[in-house]
Predict the 3D structure of the following.
Amino acid sequence: MESMIVAVDVMGGDNAPVEPIKGAIEALKQNDNLVIHLVGTESVIREVLDTIPDANTYKNRYSIVATTEVIATAESPTVAISKKKNSSLVVAMKEVKTKDAQAMVSAGNSGAILVGGQVLVGRLPGVKRAPLAPLIPTEKGPALLIDCGANLDARPELLVQFAEMGSIYMEKVMKVDRPRVAIVNVGAEEEKGNKLVKETFPLLKALDDINFIGSIEARDIPSGYADVIVTEAFVGNVILKMYEGVGKTFFKLLKEAFTANLKSKLGAGLALPVLKEKLKDFDVTRYGGAPMLGLNGLVVKTHGSATAKEFTTSILQCITFRDQNIKELIRENLSKGEN
Amino acid sequence: MESMIVAVDVMGGDNAPVEPIKGAIEALKQNDNLVIHLVGTESVIREVLDTIPDANTYKNRYSIVATTEVIATAESPTVAISKKKNSSLVVAMKEVKTKDAQAMVSAGNSGAILVGGQVLVGRLPGVKRAPLAPLIPTEKGPALLIDCGANLDARPELLVQFAEMGSIYMEKVMKVDRPRVAIVNVGAEEEKGNKLVKETFPLLKALDDINFIGSIEARDIPSGYADVIVTEAFVGNVILKMYEGVGKTFFKLLKEAFTANLKSKLGAGLALPVLKEKLKDFDVTRYGGAPMLGLNGLVVKTHGSATAKEFTTSILQCITFRDQNIKELIRENLSKGEN
């Protein structure tokens, strides 16, 4: 297999720089074809590398790309991208643009990643906005939630393109036959919804290149009612984070119950192996990062609170994305749809 | 205790008429001071009553208010309210208006309930919109999610009033000291958000009659980060239904795990009592119905998919709401805030 260079922004996210670096080294361990550029403050990176026992083993497959600035979570994305030219995020993006890397992974400022992706890496011809589209677990397998990015206050024509790109992704990359595309709504009926949904609904209905099944209520998302869940980014973000929040609380209550008394501890011991197996399928972080769709290169955003494990998954995913050639698939299929 | 008359729209919701009628009879059983008007098609009501063994025991405390029309889920709320004057929903609302009943409960068309509440029952002076505000479970007890109604495409000044009404509710009715009020956002920082949130944030910050703690990410809702969760109705609806959907899937996986093999069955037998106790606290339907705040009378909306148990809870809640006199509390405190 051809080797692949992934630029990792090690200064982004709540757990930077330790977790991204640990995750990167683990990814190198798991895949021999991987080369990683650790993009960030050199002294900090060296310090962290010193604490990772086997980091040295992989030193031929990683290099440090030294930067001097960091984009903070609270910064204005547009300002940060244009001013902080020597930040880890901007430099990692530029590596994708110049083909010094074939992909970049960051857990940093979402807005800056979204702006940077469109401004620094650039959109494919015909693509109006590049959405962030994470896979989410459902009872029937993964579904694509599109958009969870920073395209707040979206317009109907953007949602229509998100639906098309999402459908291409699920069909070509995830191999789902005729993916069911639905729009998030407050009721199942066509008449329901806010202005954006009401305006978008007939446009989606009129498309003949997607399998549009109508509205989806949030309640039906986890059960797997649709393969591509179309919504504007604010609502997408709420859906993604409700998965995370409700899941976390359930696990907490489960743990409390299982340690409450001797009887429940005994019960937990017996039931836990199969329970863990079951619940693993429903961990929203298991799919790692979310790719931005419709760009000229591969940009993967992972959770702000990502740990080493999620960085590893996100980095390894880049290889899958590259092999599946999402970029080409979207370019071919979107332009076909426009003729 | 003074008796209370509750008008129940027995034709509304997915499980009408059986579940609302069963729930009503059960409520009569549980509270001697309750009188119920079963509002709906007479022949249908009589048929259902015949199947409930002990319904006859309470016949002195219920009466049938015969109607001839039903508002369907898919109907346009405004049209339905103005045209179907002899529908169960409209007649039950009018009973509240004319004081023939002190409250009404319905699981019917949400939009019609929201429009009917404002048009037929009417708003308190100074109230711009009446939101639907369900209690949702969190790790630290119930929180108020405001708005989950049909006020789609809300404006900043409406969200501000929702925040005030929600704060009054949590302080006076739920006895929470200085309730923490937060606005749903895609990040914790003040700079983040869509247009609506960005415009609303400074207005909430400027209010000195509420304890505004800033943005809340959806992830932090279940952990109990805020007591009053302010958002526009579309997002509120998504939050409420994600609770329901993710919860349902978790219970399903739990059940599958617990019945997977002999060992897990044995474990389940031991752990289940305490587990049930723990998870009970986190059932989004346990609080029954959601009151519309800011109306001239008491209108309670319960889930479209409510079962008899939830109708009983919602009907009994009316007594609590009446005793706590929410209407007066909002009138006094809101006008104070406006001086």
Observations:
- The longest strand of chain A covers residues 34-40.
- DSSP finds eleven helices and eleven strands in chain A.
- Chain A has a mean pLDDT of 91.
